[in-house]
Design brief:
Class_I_gatase-like; alpha/beta; 214 residues; ThuA-like; two-stranded antiparallel sheet; 24% helix; ThuA-like domain-containing protein
Amino acid sequence: MRKAMIVWGGWPGHDPDLCASMIRGWLKAEGFEVRIETTTAAFADPAIHDLSLIIPIYTMSTIEKAEALNLCAAVRSGVGLAGHHGGMGDAFRDSVDYQFLCGGQWVAHPGNIIDYKVDLTKPDDPIMKGLKSFEHRSEQYYMHVDPANEVLATTTFTGEHAPWIEGVVMPVVWKKRYGAGRVFYSSLGHRAYELDVPEIRTLMTRGMLWAARE
């Protein structure tokens, strides 16, 4: 049986407890044994090197250097990492080790909750197969991203709320390698209920399964 660990905490505005519960249910349905932790100390546990998958849901907050390095080492050795929105992409702002691992960092969501479109860039990728571009109402994440990411979906900023970024095409969903490990990220899912949007739930579930070590 594959083993996963969800670590939730940090800023409560992203419903980390509810997201953890939902994702735990998805993974259990896929046959995973799921461990839930609520402090970053879990990332320092040597036992995480034996996991198949780690899911951080920990917006903002801080992580100790030793915790970040052990997490990075675990993924580099083959453990998968997957997450969404600020729970992964706006966690531990002071840790460049963590940001290098994830492949991106949130910096803004101009206009806050707005309507925007998610465009698939690789519709034939197994994670996205059968899905189509879709409209979404939420925070449109503007991120600083790793050019080595394999981008699966993007969004285009209109410039309505920040004129200087009109026409900017921003990655929304990506996957990447980190050593022997696989990393998956989606910037979608500001609140827990958004994870039940069919397209978001599908790509998140497939992304986690892709990232997980067999």
